[in-house]
Specification:
The structure is a homodimer. Chain A is of the alpha+beta class. Chain A has 4 helices and 9 strands, in the order βααββββββββαα. In chain A, strands 1-9-8-5-4-3-2 form a 7-stranded antiparallel β-sheet. The first copy, chain A, has a two-stranded antiparallel ribbon with strand order 6-7. In chain A, a hairpin with a 5-residue loop joins β8 and β9. In chain A, α1 packs across α4 and α2 crosses α4. Chain A is globular and about 45 Å long. At the A-B interface, β7 of A face β7 of B.
Chain lengths: ~160, ~160
């Protein structure tokens, strides 16, 4: 069982038992047409998702606010274990160009519980305590919580 | 031919045609017993080198000054293409723990020229212009130049 506690004071963790299979949660994270359906907390939308899912592959995910403002997020995949683990960071915009600001590295694990459910853990590491605090104040727990509800709902139906 | 110019103002580049085969330059970077012989500019020494050469593998290279002060350098390999390319960064201390300070990402390319020589390029990216300037003032060009002389001398004899 994954440890749902942060391993240090620069980390935020979301851990949830989800009523969906690991393979489908992984699909929802790696197939653009699926990711667009759950990634942004509604009424925000995700009009664009380019996902080159391999170590060193880049991603570009654009969220769009209700006022039509686009928020592009760029990152690079660091580790890819199909249906089990996905690691990406915004420290690079493409392999291996440093970004303007390394903010976080996300480690997702999908632990298949064998009964159709998955122990899902999102571990979000930051380079500084300040960035972890900023992320918390930006509403990490609520925001990622809402998105994870949307993810769970979608994956359940796959 | 690799472009020896920096691709942006946060990058430093060392490019050299070396009279040694690509495979032997790669060995000198990836085999601990070889790396220890050239990595630090003499009279500095490299008493320890732990190199887990695979994507996500960690490295620990300890340099020792003439006054016996040890300087440990920790990093993680991002991309490994045997005999051709090696990428590592100090942004992580192990897969995928953010370090205290992401300072640089090093991309080494070993282009075999087919006549026993290699077009060797070390491209060192930084997250900020300030860090690039700091690295330059720390003596990047002279320091990496001296070490590359030592690397070339060793690889030539392999």
């Amino acid at each position: 069982m994954a440890n749902p506690e942060p391993t240090n004071d620069r980390e935020l963790v979301l851990n949830r038992i989800i009523d969906a299979r690991a393979v489908n949660l992984y699909r929802a994270w790696t197939e653009p047409d699926l990711l667009k359906q759950w990634f942004a907390p509604k009424p925000y939308l995700t009009p664009e998702a380019l996902l080159d899912v391999r170590p060193g592959g880049a991603n570009l995910i654009v969220m769009r606010g209700p006022d039509e403002t686009d928020m592009p997020n760029r990152g690079v995949y660091l580790e890819v274990v199909p249906n089990r683990k996905l690691v990406f960071t915004d420290a690079f915009t493409e392999a291996w160009q440093p970004s303007q600001k390394p903010f976080m590295t996300v480690t997702l694990t999908f632990e298949d519980l064998g009964d159709g459910r998955t122990n899902y853990t999102a571990r979000v590491g930051h380079w500084t305590v300040e960035d972890r605090e900023t992320h918390e104040k930006m509403g990490f727990h609520q925001g990622w919580g809402i998105c994870t509800d949307q993810l769970a709902e979608l994956a359940k139906g796959l």
